[in-house]
Amino acid sequence: FEQCIEILKHKPTHFDLVSGDDLLTVSLVAVGAVGVISVLANAMPIEFGNMVHAALQNDYPKAQEILYKLLTINNLMYQEGNPVGVKQALELRQISAAEVRLPLVKASANLKEAIRKALV
Fold this sequence. Notes:
Blueprint: H1 2-10, E1 18-19, H2 25-30, E2 35-36, H3 40-43, H4 45-56, H5 60-76, H6 84-92, H7 109-119
Parallel strand pairs: 1-2
């Protein structure tokens, strides 16, 4: 985070910084980042998009409220390796199959159930 602040402090006007960590996005927008490259937004585009837009509009109470709701599921996205969690979330939302390529394997039954509960 400190490195990002340092980059923002010294960046040229034509340079944009984006977050690469879903849970740091609101904080980074607060200090000058303009967006995010996200894992969680693939599975929850409306919710995540609303959070980012709120932060970009300086509505930090709303952004924080959404961030707190995403906290539980975010951890699940990486529990068995990326992109296993997000693929499972996409399947549960009937967007795409949860297939992954070797050496990865599909989410365990426990992770699938935890993601299902967190998506509600």
